[in-house]
Amino acid sequence: MKASESDQRSILDIQKFDHQISTLKNKAANLPELAEIASTTIKSNNVRDLRIAAETELSDVKRELARAEGDVEQIVTRIERDEKRLASGTGTPKELEQTQHELGTLGARRSELEEVELEIMMRVDGIKDRIATLSQEENELGMVLADLNIRKENALAAIHTEREGIETDRKATTQSVNAEFLALYEKIRAGSNGIGAAALAGNQCKGCNLTLNTIELQRIAGLAQDEVVRCEECRCILVRDK
Questions:
Q1: CA-based nearest residue to 166, from 28, 16, 9, 31
Q2: Cβ-Cβ contacts under 8 Å for 198 (sequence gap 6 or more)
Q3: pTM above the 0.85 mark?
Q4: 113-142 confidence digits (pLDDT tens)
């Protein structure tokens, strides 16, 4: 295939544009904010799950507290009833003695139940403190995520703007290049990790960075300037210096 020296120079420019676009794509896919967002989201989800678990635990313990309060209330009611009976003196001496004994037993039971109630109340307070701490941490992580997302969007917008400019320059350059020659470049680039053309600098292909042997260099030197040269190693289009 033949291509004018101008087209060969242009194909190098197009390769440069394509490399820049590829670099920007890679930059967009590997923004540091993306990794930070991923790790922070995991942390936030873990904290949220802990908060939900704590809230569920709090509901269970509150039900337990309600039962304990009900038990204490029942004992208090019985104590008040017995105290009124004793105060009125109603009943036989034996019945009053039994009531007095029952009051002692109820008093001991009340103390036990109130200790249980107090222990449960302390657990409730502890869980509430834990929920408050987790909620605060969750809110803080939410603010961090919001900031990271803003930074990500700003970075992507800057990359997009830069890429648009490069793509505009690329399009303008391709319009002046022979379609068949451009198609060859695109075909090679598609099968060679994005490298379709490279400069021949001295005796080195800048596409694969390998050195051409003397015989190959002599063969290339004998070709017309509009003859399209390919690297024997990477098969990309080699653009010679004037």
A1: 16
A2: 12, 15, 205, 206, 207, 208, 231, 234, 236, 237, 238, 239
A3: no
A4: 899 999 999 999 999 999 999 999 999 999
